[in-house]
Predict the 3D structure of the following.
Amino acid sequence: MKITMIGTGYVGLVTGACFSEFGHNVICVDKIAEKIKNLTDGIVPIYEPGLENIVSKNVLEKRLKFTTELSEAVASADAVFIAVGTPSSRRGDGYADLTYIYEAVREFAQYLEGYTVIVTKSTVPVGTARQVARLVKEVNPDADFDVASNPEFLREGAAINDFMRPDRVVIGVESDKAAQILKKIYNPLYLIETPIVKTGIETAELIKYASNAFLAVKISFINEMAAICEAVGADAIALAKAIGLDKRIGGKFLHPGPGYGGSCFPKDTLALMRIFQEHGHSARIVEAAVEVNAAQKAKMVKKIRDAIGGNEAGKTIAVLGLTFKPETDDMRDAPSTTILPALLEKGARIKAHDPQGVKEAAKYLPSEITYVEDPYIACENADAVVLLTEWNQYRALDLQKIKSTMISPIFVDLRNVYHPKQMKEIGFTYVGVGRS
């Protein structure tokens, strides 16, 4: 199949590369010439394990191409996937900003030739595909096309595996012809018996929001339980394990911590709330999850402050991990972007380390932060260590070495990587989330 991917951001690049790995001929289109040149040379602008190898391999084998030219890419396509950004509206009201979607449609619609399936891959509110169809007809009344919705479910840091071996693929279509095209595109997944959920377009558009909102609710729920565990002397880790063993609940996303972040959960929960409001309903559970998440980040500031004696002024804090999760360089809505500025405002000095996120972190965090290339250097002469992202290299630190270089042995573990008993035996004043 001939596939055109509009947009080479995270979703577009991963999807396009993986489709080419399936054996399809894929052309990825982007307006930024330098980005296209770099991708053609095998230089990937984001950190995602395994992605650079897949891009380089399929470029070399001529199944994956990158271009700034829409005309040829669209005219020859069996399917055009729209994978441009849908950030929260700049008005700050939580609505998804569809400007880039509609701009892309107006630009490529004129080049459609022959029957084409136009697929929204970006996360978009209900009704977006209908608007895409309307715009295509306005620009190119003679176009022969169908629209479809095919939401992505890629976890940053595990996106390649998620694409190649997904829990499910959702296809929202209205015609058998469009369904058959998408079936051919995803044929390698049919062969390994991946569940393919075929729905109407509106249902498909809503599924991604519902999935992310549910996971956000699980995270906020366990963080609320962690708070009561601290209050009564219970252990939130044991609690989470026990309830997660119930097959109706499941253990994933039941990990107490500083709250969710990233490119999806914060944006998608707000957008879902706005969809409810537009149709005269309220998403009370989702609203509560959003409120709990915001409060959780503020609680983490207090937890750090209390650990170092109630006043961070003049104190040096070593921070291990800046990205919202491990195995990504994504800083969007990372807890660090809320927690660290609050500490700096009260006079703290911060030395930070992250295996992949420093370059991005510098764009999101105050300039006063000092970045270092080694976690042990970050901990030297520190009044406290804060473990903020659970990168694998932080799971087996030489704790005796760290303790010996610190001014005071205070370890604030916001991801519960270490066990309190172990840390106290070494001589740390240890603070976790939801346990003592």
